[in-house]
Amino acid sequence: MTNLEEKPALLDCDAVSNGGVVEVLEAREVPLGGPRAMSVRRTLPQRRRSLIGAWCFLDSYGPDEVATAGGMRVPGHPHTGLQTVTWLFEGEVEHRDTAGTVRVVRPGEVNLMTAGSGIAHSEYSTPATTRIHGAQLWLALPESARHGARAFESFAAPQFGVGPALLRVFLGELEGARSPVTTWTPVVGAEILLPAGETVTLTVSPAFEHGLLVDGGEAALDGTIGVPGSLLYRSAGSDRLQVRAGDSDVRLILLGGEPFGESIVMWWNFVGRSHDDIVRYREEWQAQLGRLADGRRDGSDPFGEFPETWETVLPAPELPTVRLRPREAAVDSRRAGT
User: Fold this and answer.
1) Is the distance from CB of 251 to CB of 216 less than 8 angstroms?
2) For 253-273, how does the pLDDT look when each residue is reduced to its tens digit (9 = 90+)?
């Protein structure tokens, strides 16, 4: 998925611990296009926190009726320095990219695209999809991998029980289940279904910080309540997470990872290390679009060869007129006076 904001924020991200307190991070609504386009709930990045482990972007959406909300219609667009993670609850999406991948994304199957130094992809709801519901996430690549090759992997995560909960582990390891999908830093990603009023205690890595996205209903993480669309954050230090459902069944996404340890800069669909990185990525993307408009295709283009079926490709927005000002990814609530 792409960030279709007309004036995307330019972010310098540097993870900061908050000393073990569970934070509630509220989502903001972001439209993904014109009047009939779907909107998403964005919980990462935001001013209070930009990273949970290597997780640097989280959009959730739906359930939306395609006839009303327009479904997912995201033309070709670029990425650098990250991995995209697509996870669906309902509906199907056709993924097509410049690594040569054409794949229909289905519920319960994680689809992970590695951008490396540059890739482009498109995402469209399939004609058979009447309702769309899911999440799109990004993982920042560490310095050792961010200039690597583009790639695509998928994995149908089996469902299993832990107490009253049903889990699917789509990245990393949790409660004895392991995903084979490649990641470049220690992370975990899992879907949790928990019946109304029930509690599950999960054994986790104490080296990980965690985020718990509440998709529907209410849920509490270690006693702190989150409402639909919110993200509950807890810093590293404990090997247990206690999750309790409210008065209705709840679906959750658990994210976690070792604190990233590297500052990153995010703007539009690019992840780099400096303002100058972002300027260069934008210039390379716009130059590739110019060559395409002139009918010139170059196998050495930095974002790969565009699929012949692409009729529309997104140009990059204009950059801000000021350079990036460094800022922290998280604000210690004691220092913030809250």
Assistant:
1) yes
2) 999 999 999 999 999 999 999
